[in-house]
Amino acid sequence: MSIEIANESGVGVEETSIVDAARFALDRMGVSPLAELSVLLVELDVMSDLHERWMDLPGPTDVMAFPMDELDSARRPDAAGVGPALLGDIVLCPAFAKDQARKAGHSLTDELHLLTVHGVLHLLGYDHAEPEEEREMFSLQNRILADFRTARAQEQQRAADDKVLGAVGLHDEAGEPAAEPATGAPAAAPERRADADPAG
Prior knowledge:
Strand content: 5-15%
Shape: globular
Order of helices and strands: EHEHEEHHH
Structural class: alpha/beta
Helix content: 40-55%
Radius of gyration: 24 Å
Largest sheet: 4 strands, mixed
Number of strands: 4
């Protein structure tokens, strides 16, 4: 799956994790691994221009999704049997998202993950204009985000474990268990003192 990201926002963000969130959502939705997606991070004034031009709404917003015309509009791209496709573009505005993150009580990175998954779902034909659509889309979004956070936490824990195990010589540089030293004789059992307690 090809996901390109360009940060023109002037805000430092974890670009790799945004790509990971997009890839996770696309995988979860069963989108072809040959699909292509572009993620663009922009400044407030650029987002304001896009918002006004395409949505006829004033001021900036957090995320916009621009599906490509290559998709068959009669079928959602997560439907079975859909082949390679250029999905479209997700545009994020980190400067706008910062305030939302603060109000929600989480990090900017978490907010950008949420907005990325939201944008992916829009590209796949989901919307939230009607109450029923909103329930479906936000429920799906929340499940994908929860599973993504769990997967990231497990990955980070594995990486931390590998680092510790590598530091004590139990893993090599590639994170594989270190080879046991080759010896010709089996290791001798530890000597027991005569006054040692046999129970332990």
